[in-house]
UniProtKB/TrEMBL annotation:
Pfam families: Abhydrolase_1 (PF00561). InterPro entries: AB_hydrolase_1, AB_hydrolase_fold, AB_hydrolase_sf. The keyword Hydrolase applies. GO terms for molecular function: hydrolase activity. Keywords: Hydrolase. Coiled coil: none annotated. The keyword Hydrolase applies. Residues 20-248 form the AB hydrolase-1 domain. It comes from the Bacteria. This is Alpha/beta fold hydrolase.
Length: 262
């Protein structure tokens, strides 16, 4: 696994496939890129060089362990793009990765050809539901690991999807998101996101994807994100927060069509 240093962080990333670079930026969780994108990399690698960094707090990436910032994580993604020799890349960010991807596009426009933001938002403290959700997750992380995993699972997937995979499938999902120190650092940053000042600086052609049944980031927040980025396109998937688990074919087609359009 290649690595690159960004500030005080040794960032690990993977690459697969050949073709124009597509960087996939994961969201909250210490398992990082492997768990988030493991089912999708091969779906893009036939036409792209797919690059999947582990951000601070996730995977094998190592840093000093302090509080995270969107700008600091964006620097890590930018360092990976440069180290991988990707030139100008298409950058897709999911959940917490969406504001990080936007920060890369705003601060390093020469590195980002097209930007895709999935289940993203602009500012946490403007939404009382999200502020309270992340506050509750932080407290549960210190008190009850099982409850933490169950709340993330309940808010991460639609009710129809959870019923469809059944009890065993749900229990497996609960165990996938333990409240590790890295995950709790992500949740702490979730509660502090504010990328409003960066959005007018985004020049890359942008697609914002909202998730109609999202119980983590209400779809209205994705619609607001779209409205805040001049010239951006918007699409919606009728699924929960982790839409690419629930409707992978629809998700892959949506991303492919956007990044391959003239």
């Amino acid at each position: 696994m290649p690595t690159v240093t960004a500030g005080d962080t040794r960032v690990h990333y993977t690459r697969a496939g050949t073709g124009p670079a597509l960087v996939l930026v994961h969201g909250t969780g210490s398992a990082g890129a492997g768990l988030t994108w493991g089912r999708l990399v091969h779906r893009f690698a036939d036409r792209h060089t797919v690059i999947t960094p582990d951000l601070s707090g996730a995977g094998r990436t190592a840093d000093g362990g302090g509080p995270l910032t969107v700008e600091g994580l964006a620097d890590q993604v930018a360092a990976v793009i440069e180290h991988a020799g990707a030139g100008t890349a298409d950058v897709l960010g999911f959940s917490l990765g969406a504001p990080v991807a936007a920060a890369v596009a705003a601060s390093r426009p020469a590195l980002v050809r097209r930007l895709v933001m999935v289940a993203g938002w602009t500012r946490t403290d403007a939404d009382e539901y999200m502020r309270n959700l992340f506050t509750l997750l932080r407290r549960l992380g210190d008190l009850d690991a099982d409850a933490f995993g169950r709340l993330l699972t309940m808010t991460g997937f639609s009710r129809g999807f959870l019923d469809a995979i059944g009890r065993q499938g749900v229990e497996e999902l609960v165990s996938n998101v333990p409240p590790t120190p890295g995950t709790l650092r992500h949740v702490d940053l979730d509660a502090r996101v504010d990328i409003g000042p960066l959005l007018p600086l985004v020049r890359a052609r942008t697609l914002v994807v909202g998730c109609a049944q999202d119980a983590t980031v209400p779809v209205a927040r994705s619609r607001e994100l779209h409205a805040a980025i001049p010239g951006s396109a918007y699409a919606e998937i009728d699924a929960g927060h982790v839409a690419f688990f629930e409707k992978p074919d629809e998700f892959v087609k949506l991303v492919r069509d956007f990044v391959q359009a003239p």
